[in-house]
Amino acid sequence: MSQSSLFERHKNTLEEGIRASRTREYWTAYPENPSPHVYGENASAEGEAAFKSYLNKAFDIDQAATIGAIGSEKSPYGFDLGITYPKVDVDGLIMHVESIRGDWAQTSVETRTGICLEILSRINKRSFEIGYAVMHTTGQAFMMAFQAGGPHAQDRGLEAVVYAYEDMKRTPAVARWEKPQGKRDPIVMEKHFSIVPRGIGLVIGCSTFPTWNSYPGLFASLVTGNAVIVKPHPGAILPAAISVKICRDVLKEEGFDPNIVTLATDSANEPLTKILALRPEVKLIDFTGSTSFGDWLENNARQALVYTEKAGVNCVIIDSTDSFRAMTSNLAFTLSLYSGQMCTTPQNIFIPKGGIETDEGHKSFDEVVAGLAGAVDKLHSDEGRACAILGAIQSEATLNRIKKYGAQDNVVLQSRAVPMAGFDKATIQTPLILKAVDKTSHNSELFGPISFVVPTENTQDSLKIVEDSVKKQGAISFGIYSTSEDVLGQAEGVACRAGVAVSFNLTGGVYVNQTAAFSDFHATGCNPAANAALSDTAFVSNRYRVVQSRKHI
Amino acid sequence: MSQSSLFERHKNTLEEGIRASRTREYWTAYPENPSPHVYGENASAEGEAAFKSYLNKAFDIDQAATIGAIGSEKSPYGFDLGITYPKVDVDGLIMHVESIRGDWAQTSVETRTGICLEILSRINKRSFEIGYAVMHTTGQAFMMAFQAGGPHAQDRGLEAVVYAYEDMKRTPAVARWEKPQGKRDPIVMEKHFSIVPRGIGLVIGCSTFPTWNSYPGLFASLVTGNAVIVKPHPGAILPAAISVKICRDVLKEEGFDPNIVTLATDSANEPLTKILALRPEVKLIDFTGSTSFGDWLENNARQALVYTEKAGVNCVIIDSTDSFRAMTSNLAFTLSLYSGQMCTTPQNIFIPKGGIETDEGHKSFDEVVAGLAGAVDKLHSDEGRACAILGAIQSEATLNRIKKYGAQDNVVLQSRAVPMAGFDKATIQTPLILKAVDKTSHNSELFGPISFVVPTENTQDSLKIVEDSVKKQGAISFGIYSTSEDVLGQAEGVACRAGVAVSFNLTGGVYVNQTAAFSDFHATGCNPAANAALSDTAFVSNRYRVVQSRKHI
Fold first, then answer.
1. Which residues 167-196 in chain A show a CB within 8 A of chain B?
2. Would you tell me how many other CB atoms lie within 10 Å of the CB of residue B12?
3. CA distances, B283 to each of B106, B292, B542 (Å)
């Protein structure tokens, strides 16, 4: 298919995306409903079969600078994937990518945009296959793996394309400049403006959201003309590998060297991330992961622009509610979803020690906690439903953390293992809730299903603590329950000063740990949890520069 | 005047600026012609009188945290200005600014934009006064001081406001989000989006363009809601002080604390820049100056986003010309303008050792050099005209550099002092041209009127050397003369790969060291000479963040 046709084919999606990003109204390009009516009668079975076809063999990707095979992913549902991926020679890979990236850098914005949109469209068609791959690397339950790993991730990728396209097109390719000279002839110049990418973008994936957290950086760097090396987490390679292969397929069909997008797989024993991150050719880095490694990148990869999403401590304040049951249900689901293995899951829940006013009358601190614990318990009373919400625990470290904190004497609700039909080795755990014992016990991120109820003097105290916590520890989400407009206004002030998004009184089908592309920004870029937001102009506009020429005509 | 009225008053200017920045056609908001018909019959005399009224007294600016007086500016035209400015207590200043900046951060984008546009409009009306202040601090001849220090600088300030306004308005203040739920009622949320500034912006001025190089950062940070501290170069305080005072006047009239914009004057003996730059409250830094200090800022002021314009080595390639006389005239003016004290003045002129083809027939290397030297000589044959082009040498260091290099045995055209009527102590020097003696003699920036003619094997060699030079030493401008479209195409390739703007065959009234706001970008941000461009989206979009709230309705 001709390159301009790809742009034309997807132009409507692009324009709708631009409109949505500017109105922030509800819009999605990729249906989140895994219904046969949407994705096809056999889509689920075919997707599962495609996933199974990858197991216990080498992943078929014909990539430059391959020097062996590597890979040892394990499904959190209790089996080895047995897939190997190319082991790359970093010098050879970078040298090759540098040698071939010029064509991509120099082609038109429309060509690159059309190709990125075609890639996203093909990724969308393979949402079931990618969903199973996400499920069996991250431990997400299938529905979430499908939605967050599929359409929602694709929306975030598209969002980055939308922002980058609009910003690149802000400058015309050609301009005629005519300066009046009084009675003399004007000075007339023709000026050409070229979009020049920075070089190679490195996308460092995480183990829990290998597509959702990687697509924004991948597509932002790619559409602006950079080559991209994807370095997945050793525990979640397959979703990245499938995505990279789709990128390569489309690039090749359209006449570009597929090595514009490559996969650099490593292992815990032979890590490549630092080596790649310090290469002078790597000019952009997108990272999701720990604060310590994010800080290392920011401090050491000085040749690159580094976009990081690190750890934070998310907070919820309970001041009062006119729907106690709905509030506790909403929070119970929030704490349970993917066993809290999300950078947006609340960890600390601040409740006045004197209790709160509710539609069921005054509730003491202990009654509020009991209500929350009861709602969590009730949510998981059915094992099938529990598994479908909780998913499996991705890492040994998180399992050990649950054990360690579960052994403390401040447990409010104990975590318990849930058996899963068909996957008897799956590591599924209900949330653990603790009561904060001092002012610091809960002040650093405890990744996974571990949260604290924290007694405070009153809501003013809660607000003060949260503002301080977000400024110091960072946060991506912040929720508050209150029937007082005044308190909500104060919370908005806290949110603005500390730089965190705030959700008011979530009691229905929206959860504080969820954001919708094109409407909600993910992170703000102005507290320690992240130095960028997904996605805004700042996320894309420095990934390329403009070089101009001018001449008299 | 009400705040919304200021926005309405200047809305047309804003909209015209947006249009111009998108078409890159010729447009200016502030006339560069210092004619009485434009600026008023007595504008020049009144401006000069206003300038003289500042001399030999304390500058009247009522600023927080003042603990004394400081200042020892000298006019490069041979006299002491004798002006003192407030010496600030840094702790006190920053504490005060932090305590009062909230109102400015929280007011509407329109209010801030209206105020910035009113400030620019008032600065424009005082272009003569500022012009004299620029002349007698930088040494620029009056016409240039008026134009570059006045309307052109104002255009660059406006350009930053235009980009920031458009980007801030990309996100709506309020959105209604309505997610369909099949047959059930949709989920409906109201979302609020707040523009949140980063904190305090520090603008570090330079001695040669105290307004032109400072206004972009000043207005970009200010319009996005940050407070701004202007730290001028100790040698060029007055133009910054007048500008800051105008900012404060308008802020105060509009009901804001004037300390949203403050002046932090220092001296070579008691420098403040590093102290200010490392303050945790300083989140944005705009710097123009030496590579060593720019690098220091980038490496040490890690709490801030740092926008730097540092040193570079600008290049011109001569391949061939169909107008030898016009080419040499254009280059002679380019090298002479403000005695080469511009970050855009070419330093190295590459000429094939075998000579070039011209409209006057083949010219040997020496003939080309003689043509250029002759054109420079001729340009300065009249002393009055010479002074009006050259201006005065701003610093002792530049004067010493001219002496040192003028004493070498590779001089092609010697620099000579030019006397100026009425200013018998003015330090005015014609350009010094040297022949490169080896591959390195000319490879670092020699600020001021010192340039090299560099013999090369041929134009291919010249192109290769320039690409390498720009990548390593950085450059803000690049010019080439050639009658071959093929060679010009290759030069455009060099420009894109090295990341520098290129001008082809300038023979008329446009010079390689000049850029026009709204059409030409100043610097690219992708070679060592600068990490940002004036102005584009990347220059403004990270100076603020978006914080959202959401609730069900």
1. 167, 170-172, 175-181, 187, 189, 191-194, 196
2. 10
3. 17, 21, 11
Is the alpha carbon torsion for B127, B128, B133, B134 positive or negative? positive
- From A179, A541, A547, residue closest to B501, measured CB to CB: A547
Alpha carbon distances (Å) from A454 to A202, A260, A317, A474 = 40, 50, 9, 18
Average pLDDT over residues A23-34: 97
How far, CA to CA in Å, does B232 sit from each of A492, B119, B273, B286? 37, 19, 9, 11
CB within 8 Å of B180: residues ≥ 6 apart: A26, B186
**ipTM for this prediction:** 0.97
In angstroms, the CA A120 to CA A30 distance is 9
- Pairwise CB contact (< 8 Å): B542 & A538: yes
β-bridge partners, A230: A203, A263
Q: Which domains does chain A have, with CATH numbers?
A: 3-18+35-175+196-310+533-548 (3.40.605.10), 314-504 (3.40.309.10)
Cβ B168 vs Cβ B112: under 8 Å: no
| Chain A residues inside the 8 Å CB shell of B196 | 496, 499, 524, 526
Contact B116, B215 (CB under 8 A): no
- Other C-beta atoms closer than 10 Å to the C-beta of B57 total 10
Q: Does the CB of B437 have a partner CB in chain A at under 8 Å?
A: no
Is the sign of the CA dihedral A469, A471, A476, A482 positive or negative?
positive
Sort residue A65 into left (φ over 0), alpha (ψ -120 to 50) or beta. Answer: left
B45 vs A: CB within 8 A: no
Burial class for B55, CB neighbours closer than 10 Å (0-12, 13-18, 19+): middle
**Is this prediction's pTM over 0.95?**
yes
Beta pairing class for A356-358 and A361-363: antiparallel
The pair phi, psi for residue A456, each rounded to 5°, is -125, 170
Is the CB of A310 inside 8 Å of chain B's CB atoms? no
pLDDT, tens only, B474-518: 999 999 999 999 999 999 999 999 999 999 999 999 999 999 999
DSSP code of residue A521:
P
Q: Max CA-CA distance within chain A?
A: 89
Tokens of B530: 């600068």
Which DSSP state fits B360?
T
User: From CA A138, how far away is CA A141, in angstroms rounded?
Assistant: 9
List A545's β-bridge partners, or say none: A196
Tokens 């500016």 locate to B73
Residue A360 tokens read as: 């069921």
For residue A84 the two structure tokens come to: 């190997």
Q: What b-and-e string marks burial along B385-406, b requiring 16 or more CB atoms within 10 Å of the CB?
A: ebbebbbbbbbeebbebbeebb
Q: At A115, list the tokens.
A: 């190709």
A547 with B541: Cβ contact below 8 A: no
Q: Is the pLDDT of residue A468 over 90?
A: yes
Per-residue pLDDT of B49-76, as tens digits, reads 999 999 999 999 999 999 999 999 999 9
Cβ of A186: how many Cβ atoms within 10 Å? 12
CB B309 within 8 A of CB B523: yes
Alpha-carbon distance of B315 to A174, in angstroms, equals: 24
